[in-house]
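Supplementary Note 3. Input sequence used for the single-chain structure prediction.
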Amino acid sequence: MGSSIKNILCLTLITLAAGAGLGYVYDLTKEPIARMEAETRQAAYRSVFPEADQFTPLENDGSIPGFSEADENGCEIDSAVYAEDASGSRLGYVINVTSHEGYGGDITISMGIDNEGCVKGVEFLEISETAGLGMKAKEPAFKEQFRDRTVTRFSYTKTGAASDFEIDAISGATITTTAVTSAVNAGLEFYEKIGGAGI
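The predicted structure, written as discrete structure tokens, is reproduced below.
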């Protein structure tokens, strides 16, 4: 009896010490991680909207449709910022979208769209697809297909893109291609909901 109480007390002390240690490490790393994530986002914003000098958050007061609501393709808008020049004039938006339909988990992108509805670029904030297959989405050959296109919706093809709205699928990674294309389309739909070219 005394031995089991002693064991329980030892386990309790070990658990408390481990919990305190984990809490300390979390507090220690929380700020650097948040800073690194913010820097990663800023780098992505500059990549997808290089003409912009500053990025101002688009505040969601609950009246903007589409924020944090997964659509029928498993995509949701995480956040958006105004892309502005040095004088504060709005050049367009950068929209952050997550697809929950990736082969290896969530895929999060940043996409720039200017005042005329032209996609300025697409960059990845989060992607964990299969090496050599789905991870090819990060390569310029795939993601640059979206750049400088003014369309209302993209689709992919396996037989060679022939129109502005078509992109070439990644060979052997149809699920990844679908997830990324759906995320870009969700961003385009959101752009229209918040005013589109009438920014």
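The chain has a mean pLDDT of 88. The chain is about 35% helix and 25% strand.
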